[in-house]
Every structure is written in C-alpha cells, then in structure tokens.
Amino acid sequence: MLRIVREHARKHPGLIPQFFFICLGMGGATLYLIRLARGPHVTWNKTSNPEPWNQLNPTYQYKFVAINTDYKNLKKEGPDF
C-alpha cells in the first residue's frame, strides 16, 4: 500500500499535499476519538466506578469549547450521591 502511494507521488507530485492533508485529518480524528474515550462521561470499568460523572466538580469544564459558560462561577445543584 505504501509502495503504491510512493509510486503515485513520484509520477504525480501534485498528489503529495493531498496525501499530507489526508494523513493529517486521519491523525486528528484519531486523537479526537482518544480524547472522547477518556472523557469523564465514559466508564470502562463498571465494577469499581459505575457512575464517574457523579464525582465531577461543578466547575469542571468537560466541553472542548465553552463559549457562553463560565465554569468558575457555577454552583452545585442537587444532592450528593
């Protein structure tokens, strides 16, 4: 597979940026999926911690980008479990 890509890149040098950006996009998508899998709302071990989202502080910024929310001034609403 890599040999075919290399041969095409030698024959058509205009494909090199396309290969670069395809690899960059695939790498970025992979890193984002890893980030999502390690988030606070995902549980991989249900025996030791079945509900990990209940242990989060209300000021924890769990979103990637929070435009209108100031997490420093939030207060907890609800009981402790």
Q: What does this entry look like structurally?
A:
By secondary structure, this protein is mostly helical. It has a domain at 1-38. It has 2 helices and no strands. The protein has helices spanning 2-11, 16-37. The relative contact order is 0.08. This is NADH dehydrogenase [ubiquinone] 1 alpha subcomplex subunit 4-like 2. InterPro entries: B12D. The chain crosses the membrane at residues 15-34. It comes from Chanos chanos (Milkfish). Keywords: Membrane, Transmembrane, Transmembrane helix.
Report a brief summary of the structure.
With 81 residues, this protein is mainly alpha-helical. The chain contains 2 helices and no strands.
pLDDT < 50 stretches: none
**Overall helicity:** 25-40%
Largest sheet features? none
Given helix and strand content, the structural type is mainly alpha
Topology order in helix (H) and strand (E) letters:
HH
Portion in strands: under 5%
The tally of strands reads: 0
Radius of gyration: 22 Å
Oligomeric state as shown: single chain
Query: Average pLDDT, to the nearest integer?
Result: 80
Gross morphology: elongated
Distance between the termini: 53 Å
Helices and strands in order, then pairings?
Elements: H1 2-11, H2 16-37
Quick tags:
single chain; 81 residues; mainly alpha; 2 helices; 40% helix; elongated
